[in-house]
Amino acid sequence: MTNTDIKQLCGLLHEQVQAALPELETVIGWTQGYDLLHTTPVFVRDANSISKLIWNPFCSQNLTGYLVKTPAVQATDKAKKIGVCVKGCDSRSLVALIQEKFVSRDSLYILGFPCHGVIDWHRVMLKVPATGIQAATVEDGQLILEHNGGLQRLELADVLARKCLRCVYPNPVIHDTLIGKVATPLVTVENAYRDVEGLEQQSLAERLDFWRSELDRCMRCYACRNACPLCVCQERCIAETREPKWLTQYMSISEKYLFHFIHALHLAGRCTECGECERVCPMEIPVTLMKEELSKIIRELLGYEAGVNLEAVPPLLTFSPDETSI
Amino acid sequence: MTGKVYIAQPDLEKVLSKLAGNMDVWVPAAPANGKWGVEFMPYHSGLAPILNRRSSLPPKKVLLPQMEALLRFEYQKDPQDPSKVTLRLDDPTADSLTSRPVLVFGARPCDTRGFLTLDRTFTNGPYVDAYYRKRRENTFFATLVCGEADSACFCSSVGSGPADMEGSDLRLIPVEDGYVLETLTERAAFILDSLESLALPPTEIQEAAAKQINDEISSQPASGFPPGTVEAFRGRFENLGYWQEAVEQCLSCGVCTYVCPTCYCFTITDEMKNLEGARLRSWDSCMFSHYTSEASGHNPRPTKLERYRNRVGHKFSYIPTNYDGMIGCCGCGRCIRLCPVSIDIRKVVQGLKEETCECA
Prior knowledge:
The complex is a heterodimer. By secondary structure, chain A is an alpha/beta fold. Chain A is built from 11 helices and 8 strands. In chain A, strand 3 (about 80-85), helix 2 (about 90-100) and strand 4 (about 110) form a beta-alpha-beta unit. Chain B has helices at about 10-20, 60-65, 95, 110-120, 130-140, 190-195, 205-220, 230-235, 240-245, 255-260, 305-320, 335, 345-355; strands at about 5-10, 25-30, 40, 65-75, 85-90, 100-105, 140-145, 170-175, 180-185, 265-275, 275-285. Chain B starts with a strand and ends in a 7-residue tail after the last helix.
């Protein structure tokens, strides 16, 4: 996507929103954040604010959680809809939320964006501790940065979010309007689980060491939980309930394990691997790996992939006496 | 008192090892490979300090651990009469709060300044926190003059700056191929003395280079927040539209508070198993809804708007009002950098004074 492409797509986005706005109460989208590598979610409610909306390879946040988490963005005028911008991965969260009846399809106007991957800011900083970034564009498989240190070209493979390198659904699986040309997936579902397969190759002791050293850094800020569109217990989360009291305030690894594994297990067969939990972690713990392992097991055992088919019933939301694979 | 030494880059670990013989030394280092994040950890030989990248976590936990046991208790039943129970109490910190000195090496001015807010709260008010004070008295800061700001930094907006040495005991200036380390306080004089022949005074050239760097960084223009923020916050307090516009995207997680050098709120819980337990003090976050949840079920800060408003108010209005006008924010930018949705507190504070806003 060159600068011209980006400009054109943003123009298209503004036109689409302008045209749809009379039917919409709010549009949830992305706007420029505090620098060129960051975007921040924005809630557009009037025509004057439409120009705030942007689309580019830095639009990392999954916005679908705002539809269900308190205070959920809902239309007060039931004749109106909520507009929401989604990438391929985000659209799968939406499918899961609709399946579970947290939000109804009819209440949404979905602006879909075919996606070529989003930039992981941590990975950029690791390569170039850039300051004073004046320009950041993605072109021909490279991220081109102009900063105080000069011009720098980084290979996308080194700076894309991990989830993007294993993305099977770059195109929104559900949408009312599609902004941009359909993207070609980089991988097929058969080889989308290489990262967890790599972990599986390790011995149990090695895996335990890996998770110990990773989870030991967890501060229990619960960003992973709060950013997850499908983590819907909210104030009733086991991390905080007092009756019964599951977790203590000890900062021990067992408390952190318990939280993270329950978080993962509650998402078994539901997680669409949008990677938000991993993206938001201030300690860079690869927490999505746990959910990937579960998704892989669900796929092998039950032939189910979460968030791709609106008509399908998630396996753990149903009961079949004839079930033979578990 | 104004001792100075030059530490060549290859000698840095030798110097730290020597210091670690007499003190607990904390340095910024990477916890795992392939990660951008840097945090402060106890120095041990072989640990490579990272001084050219700002740390993702401040050294706050050195003086205010995320969790500490304030006391341990045990109920003991009388074997002759099980209805009779006696309570045994233990102070587990008595041993850990020794007088062994602690050195925080390589914190940036914003990191060190964060403790000035904690000091006011824990040691200067009517109630003194004995645990904090004891640690504070034993802790020394060798603060690194900070070369380059990134897009989230704003120390110069809160009355500080990249060469600010308030609260520091030693100044660390990065020069070519090494550092000049200079004593700033009487009480820290023993630190350079303890290095003996391991580090020599800087040559005239090294000293001049250090001075030039420090002068250059000190003279960077400061761009403070406009005066009157305290009052402007009060004026905005009831304007929920303003706060809605500012933080509608907030996820109500605890990142901003846990990575903040000046956030000190904690909770106290008794954690018990069978007849034994401990009273723990652990970090809490005003971004969590249960932080203000009352036993009745009422919550005086029912939504993220009131909660975020409190965070801004606490740092930019209540602390300056209650103490000596000092802003309760050190401008390190971590809450901006690590916020999952890139909320920018600078924008929120600047907007307090603006006459018109879209949300009015």
